[in-house]
Amino acid sequence: MTTLDVDAVQAFVTVADLQSFTRAAELLGSTQGAISVKLKRLEDRLGQRLIERTPRSVRLSAQGAVFIDGAREFLAAHDRALAGVFSARRHFGLGIAAHVAGPEVPTLLARLNAHDPGLTIEVRMDTSRVLLDAFDRGELDAAIIRREDDRRDGEVLGPEHFGWFAAPQFAHRQGEPLRLAALAPACGVRDIATRALDAGSIPWTEVFLGGTSSMVTAAVSAGLAISAFSCRLAPPGTVEVSHRFGLPPLPSTEIVMFSTLTDARSREALRTLATAFREHRPSS
Predict the structure, then answer these.
(1) Distance, CA of 35 to CA of 143 (rounded, Å)
(2) pTM over 0.70
(3) What does this protein do (predicted)?
(4) Among 67, 224, 252, 275, which is 20 to 30 Å from 30 by CA?
């Protein structure tokens, strides 16, 4: 079965239309020699001379005149096939951990949309553990989470540092348990904070346990409690108070992106995603 090379057919049609190897090479961003090689390869494959070339003229041969219409249809079908692939809207399921999402997220999504307008981005926000489980089940194409276990795969986007934050007016009486505002028990930051307090033999009590992130932020900003936050995401107006109250340092971790996408278009979208996150996340 004879198969056709798209580049060779394009070279033939362009030479036929312009009646010049030199102008065809200029239009195709190639060289006259390369165009000649492609045409010779096509003629050898078909077993027919397609172009009659003399020092003064370039014209279709009798066989070339028969082949030219089919060649144009072949190229048009090739262009339609590519247009169908690149114009079709695709869905991209992206998970972003709630404790990772910061002010860079709008920029991140805008960059991804500008890179590929045919991409329908479906964003899901939850805890890192829930999103990683969803990714492992195939429910997400990519997930940006905080590393919370010994799993070492995924692309590291950057470090994540933590600190103890409180309102400037927060008061802690010596001998009383430290008032700690925290989210639900499944929260990874809560686990980091409480383990550090227990290891330092510092008594603590939780307030606003199980509340929303906005409730925790409100309690800390109002001076009612202290909480551990990512240094990127500490509430405005709060200050780091670990030295002030003799609190233990909190271990750092990493922000990681997971994905199993392998096609070139998706991989390029992932590179855009990672670059946007690294460029626009505030310094810790």
Answers:
(1) 46
(2) no
(3) Transcriptional regulator of the ttuABCDE tartrate utilization operon.
(4) 67
